[in-house]
Fold this sequence. Notes:
The protein is an alpha/beta fold. The protein has helices at 22-29, 91-107, 126-145, 163-170, 187-194, 204-211, 213-218, 230-241, 249-266, 272-279, 292-301; strands at residues 36-38, 63-70, 73-80, 111-116, 150-154, 160-161, 173-177, 182-183, 224-226. Helix 2 runs parallel beside helix 3 (126-145) and helix 3 (126-145) runs parallel beside helix 4.
Amino acid sequence: MAMSPVSLSADPLDQSWYEASARARLDALVDPGTFEEFLGPEQRVMSPHLPAFDLPRAFDDGIVVGRGRFDGSLVLLAAQEGRFMGGAFGEIHGAKLVGLLRAALQVKPAAVLILFDTGGVRLQEANAGETAIAEIMRAIADLRRAGVPVIGLIGGRAGCYGGGGLIAGTCSRLVVSEGGRISVSGPEVIETNRGAEEFDSRDRALVWRTMGGKHRRLIGGADAFADDTIRAFRDVAREQIGKAPAFDLATLEAEQARLEARLDRFGDARDATEIWGRLGVNDPAAVPGLDTDRFDALLARLPEAPHDAR
């Protein structure tokens, strides 16, 4: 995996998205000084379940939700904190995101931005977490049907796994960086259930070329690729808000047809590099080492451009 160096600039927009905290991402993503948090740490809305397992709690339960201005327009935002329990969904964590999405249906912002950084659902709160996943997906569908774009941004340490991967699939558009990974089943889960012969979770190169941002962009599982700075994510998010498709039967049928065609074409492939070769990449082995500019150039010259509309 080729990560961009961490910037030493004092400009918050030049921070590494991968290294930044949830609040740092939000504060720099919106117009300066406009982010207003809902249910902040001072209100101490915490998980009621973790003490039973002798586990520490966080005052915000690992997710920050609020509103701000993006190029002057109102947006609602949620950012998961991957450094607390891997950004996993529990009862309070999920309820905060559900509440934000339902509020968006009332206020009709220019967009909702979800900054994913999650390993999935907390085992300690599995039932509540799974319920929250379903409620979040329904709320996103309601928002999209009402014409509000929901943009997912993925580039944090925890990636976007489990229920987070399902939620990401319901978003209007997805932006991913090299550091981002998207999958319903994480590497350790696959290895535990199928063995290391099927998937070696310690093989970082395998993990990134199978689940990483470049692969997801190449096969159309993400709509745009961003460099690892908050500035880059902001610039690409701006473009994607304007590209959000209608949420209607024609869109869903087109997406279903695309997924069926992808399975037919690549279902027998044993490695991502084989898929990239079939897509027209001349040197598949070189893809993981490409910087953002060279990767964008590769996308532009592919004989079959990756899908660019959901």
